[in-house]
Amino acid sequence: MAAVIRLLSPWGFDRFVRDSKAALMGASVEEFNAAKEKLGALKKDPGNEVKLTIYALFKQATQGPCNTPKPSMLDFVNKVKWDAWKSLGSLSQEEARRQYVDLITSLVGEEAPAVAAQPTGSTKSFQTLLISTEDNITTIRLNRPEKKNAITAEMYNELIEALDLAGKDDSVITAITGSGDYYCSGNDLNNFTKSPEGGVEKMAKDAGQLLRRYVKAYIDFPKPLIGVINGPAVGVSVTLLGLFDVVYATERATFHTPFSQLGQSPEGCSSYLFPKMMGAAKASEMLLFNKKLTAAQACEVGLVTEVFPESSFQSEVWTRLKAYAKLPRNSLALSKQLIRAVEKEKLYAINDAEVERLVERWLSDECMQAIMSFFQAKSKL
Ligand code: COA
């Protein structure tokens, strides 16, 4: 990493800021331009990882999906930048502009004095998430686009903390979405490949405790929680949707829970909520037989509330959420808590049972072999 940082320095952050003054046409041009100005005024260097994300979003917003030839391995700086841009896949220019604006807003927020939405009195910065509060909406954005937002142990912990802060802040609703072209590719499979201190059994037990706390954070979340599903979703990012209050998806999203393929078993209270929501047979197709649903199919079975065209997804969803966030805060929170209270104890028990089963599964040969196959297949590419 140190080498990456040294090599990126000549790239020239100032030049990037200057280049980014190029004129843009489009719906959110004013917001985008305002964000570019704010970027120039940042006092702290945000670090190379963030600068790469800014660069990639800027290219995607102004030129669309990466269409330039891949630089050679020896052209290291340009290769890293090209990879970052390429990792955004077919993300629309409008969504790239939106993510660019959100990213700059969150960077500026980190430098600003405490805002009312952060009652702890200090702004919290996360390594794997971007958090912003605007128009009474706290947005938690998964931010590992180059890994399709796969959830590492660090990200699980940060999500738990971000949900805790969002639950207590002054916002009316909270939204979770992803950076880049994926919503989330589920558990980071590298979580299973590290050589653990204290042995594999301890590792599985610790991972189980983390998962239990993670799912509990959703069960206990005290105000309306909205999923803004900006692309494909896999594994735990799908199973948890049963604990969201509303789920809006782009037509490009898919919903896949390949548990048995990985020798694992369902979590996120899906073993209870999915059959209840969609009927036992449809739930079994997903949770046992790995059936991947399109956004339209997920909407038919009740996992998704509404599907939007990719071209208008961001503007339609955020316009709607801004209107929801003008509703009385306490009324919304108390009503949500009433709905959740009916089954809260049951959900805790289901979470415990699912985690217990998963800890066993993680130690099974079936699971280890499936994960090794995933990485072996990648290494052959
Ligand atoms: N865990 C670890 N790494 C992951 C990941 C995951 N869940 N999902 C994606 N990645 C990594 C890939 O290994 C790749 O890393 P690399 O650039 O170092 O090779 C990078 O993210 C981009 O993914 P890639 O596979 O190249 O993109 P794709 O568009 O071809 O495929 C997926 C995307 C999500 C379909 C594919 O990565 C995948 O199947 N991931 C595993 C999903 C999964 O099984 N999750 C657990 C469910 S229980």
UniProtKB/TrEMBL annotation:
Domain ACB: 28-113
Keyword match Isomerase: yes
Pfam entry (one): ECH_1
Subcellular location: Peroxisome
GO cellular component, one term: mitochondrion
Keywords in alphabetical order: Isomerase, Peroxisome
Protein name, as recorded: Enoyl-CoA delta isomerase 2, mitochondrial-like
Encoding gene, per UniProt annotation: LOC107600137
